[in-house]
Write a structure and sequence with these properties.
10 helices, seven-stranded mixed beta sheet, Rossmann fold, eight-stranded mixed beta sheet, single chain, binds S-adenosylmethionine, Alpha-Beta Plaits, 2 domains, alpha/beta
């Protein structure tokens, strides 16, 4: 039977499962879940095999919050022999279908990390063998089909496919970012990943360019401010805590020790609002929508902290709150949320208005 395999942060399998089941049902696709607890893997077994391709075509991965990557299975779990693993994989795959790229993947666990060395080694002869039979073609454009080989151990693999245009370009959906040594906190990687994830490459030059003004709520010690400064922006950082000296010395940062819920900008020239305040997610959600509707900023990137039980329900409620506020003002908008790799008990949301607020004065 065919399944969709989804990769998420270990510990968030329940949320990832609930979400795929619900969003598949919107497309009249049904199945049952198998959660691989603490492995960051969710198997969504489909009642109708043909629904796998339909789901990969109809549901954009970027609409899923908790899934980093996904594929539809071509085989069940295959037991591999100790020798001739390449042959066994080629045989299981057959020669009917062609793929434009090979993704060697593992669960995002410590065991998975030690397996990845084995995967790297195996990928060379496997690639060669698949090329020989033309099962693996030249890496092409965005229309391709990726072949996923998910190794659960050195002896067990699942094979599957995803469409290049509707999957993450990163192995297991994980972008490996380098921690910049000048950043005052590791949180910096969250905003770096958020910009990579939500802002298309060809729009970064205009939407993330130098000279833009930004406000960072809950900024101390300055990991997020650092990402804005390094892109040449002028930043107003709001936090009662101290900001790193190195950032203040750039001359690009103004720091105010005030409450992020009370601060409002003097001029309407702020492009980015970013917010990493540790606060009730519904409070943050409401504040972000108010900033956008008041025209205080053009785009907002923020984290919703999720330390509670019922995290998927909480996220749905918070996103709905924002959407309802936008709908009430009859504005067009864009909103996406993702549980990013560098996020922990939180998700990142990007929102912007696509039409102006028409005030009745
Ligand atoms: C997770 S830390 C932010 C880390 C920061 N993004 C970085 O990269 O270094 C959360 C910050 O939010 C601040 N904070 C919490 N509530 C706040 C409020 N109401 N107004 C301003 N800052 C607040 C805290 O002082 C804390 O420094």
């Amino acid at each position: 039977m065919t399944a969709i395999v989804l990769y998420c942060r270990p510990g968030f399998e329940k949320e990832c499962g609930a979400e795929i089941q619900e969003k598949a049902a919107w497309n009249e696709i049904y199945g049952y879940l198998e959660l691989s607890k603490k492995q960051g893997l969710v198997y969504f077994h489909l009642h109708q095999s043909e629904d796998a391709e339909k789901l990969l075509q109809k549901l954009p991965l970027k609409r899923l919050i908790f899934a980093r990557q996904w594929f539809a299975t071509v085989t069940d779990k295959i037991e591999l022999p100790e020798y001739n693993r390449v042959e066994a994989i080629c045989e299981a795959l057959g020669e009917e279908w062609q793929y434009s790229d090979l993704r060697m993947e593992t669960p995002d666990t410590n065991d998975g990390k030690s397996l990845s060395k084995f995967c790297r080694k195996l990928s060379v002869p496997l690639r060669q063998a698949l090329r020989k039979t033309k099962v693996l073609t030249e890496k092409g454009n965005n229309d391709g089909v990726n072949l996923h080989a998910l190794f659960l151990s050195g002896q067990q693999v699942i094979l599957g496919y995803s469409f290049t245009h509707n999957s993450s370009e990163h192995i297991m959906g994980i972008p490996r970012l380098k921690f910049p040594s000048q950043s005052p906190s590791r949180s910096t990687l969250k905003l770096d990943e958020a910009f990579l994830n939500f802002i298309p490459k060809d729009e970064r030059e205009t939407r993330l360019t130098s000279g833009l003004r930004a406000v960072d709520l809950g900024a101390a010690p300055g990991g997020w401010t650092y990402q804005l400064v390094r892109r040449g922006m002028m930043v107003t950082s709001i936090d009662n805590g101290p900001m790193a000296e190195s950032l203040m010395e750039t001359g690009q940062v103004k720091h105010y020790m005030v409450d992020g819920f009370k601060y409002t900008p003097m001029k309407q020239n702020v492009y980015w609002l970013v917010c990493d305040m540790i606060e009730k997610p519904s409070r943050v959600a409401k504040l972000m929508a108010q900033w956008l509707l008041n025209g205080y900023c053009k785009e907002a990137m923020f984290n919703l902290k999720l330390p509670m039980k019922g995290r998927y329900q909480e996220v749905q409620k918070d996103l709905q709150l924002i959407k309802d506020m936008f709908t009430k003002e009859h504005v067009k908008y864009e909103i996406y949320a993702k549980h990013l790799y560098y996020d922990r008990e939180e998700i990142t949301v990007h929102a912007r208005l696509l039409s102006p607020v028409l005030r009745k004065d």
